[in-house]
Design a protein that fits this description.
Number of helices: 7
Number of domains: 2
Largest sheet: 6 strands, mixed
CATH class of the largest domain: Alpha Beta
Structural class: alpha/beta
CATH superfamily of the largest domain: Vaccinia Virus protein VP39
Strand content: 35-45%
CATH architecture of the largest domain: 3-Layer(aba) Sandwich
Helix content: 25-40%
Distance between the termini: 42 Å
Number of strands: 10
Shape: globular
């Protein structure tokens, strides 16, 4: 077991059922035309939004995630993107130091990890006039009482236990097949001052 952000495979398992089949393309439609735009993918994970930006003609693409386990494949898949393994605040400060501003920003299922006044001020400073920021996130905070969910994805059986202590969300993910049971623990500090599902903000 480990205390960290989940790896890509674990993240995909935990959140697949929340997406309900919805794709990153659906979220990115709220960004409008991407041709020749300067785009930023925050909490990029596997880089799905990064791939979408590049496929739709973006001029500049930054892909940011602080977890090497999540973002390690993005540089290989998207050689034309600027891949930054850093916290959101550090990446935004780097962009400002380099004079890089953005027209389109997306944060898929990750805004609760970094939503602070400082980070929002940095993001605002990094965005061009008339730019668009789109994100999605959960709309409820896990309770202090552990909650167990069991579900089946792709013919595999999973059990998930989630609960919050202060601003730390604890998740235990168990996967069972015919030969063995795997259990992983993730403890992530998050902010719950944002209570919404989908939001588009024009700066």
């Amino acid at each position: 077991m480990r205390s960290s952000y989940p790896a890509a495979d674990d993240y995909r398992i935990m959140y697949a059922r929340y997406y309900g089949g919805r794709s990153v393309k659906e979220l990115c439609t709220h960004l409008g035309d991407l041709r020749d735009m300067k785009c930023l993918d925050l909490c990029a994970g596997e880089g799905l939004a990064t791939e979408h930006f590049l496929a739709h003609g973006a001029h500049t693409v930054w892909s940011v995630d602080e977890s090497e386990l999540m973002i390690h494949s993005v540089a290989e898949k998207c050689p034309h993107a600027r891949v930054v393994c850093a916290t959101v605040e550090s990446a935004l400060m780097l962009a400002l130091e380099e004079g890089q501003l953005f027209d389109r920003v997306v944060c898929r299922q990750g805004v609760n990890y970094w939503f602070t006044s400082k980070a929002i001020d940095l993001l605002s400073a990094c965005m061009e006039v008339g730019s668009v920021f789109v994100f999605n996130t959960f709309n409820t905070k896990p309770s202090a009482q552990p909650r167990v969910r069991q579900y089946v994805l792709n013919n595999h059986h999973y059990a998930e236990i989630a609960y919050a202590v202060g601003d730390i969300v604890h998740t235990v993910l168990g996967a069972k097949d015919t030969s063995r049971t795997k259990v992983r623990y993730f403890g992530c500090r998050v902010s719950f001052c944002m209570q919404c599902c989908n939001r588009t903000t024009r700066w």
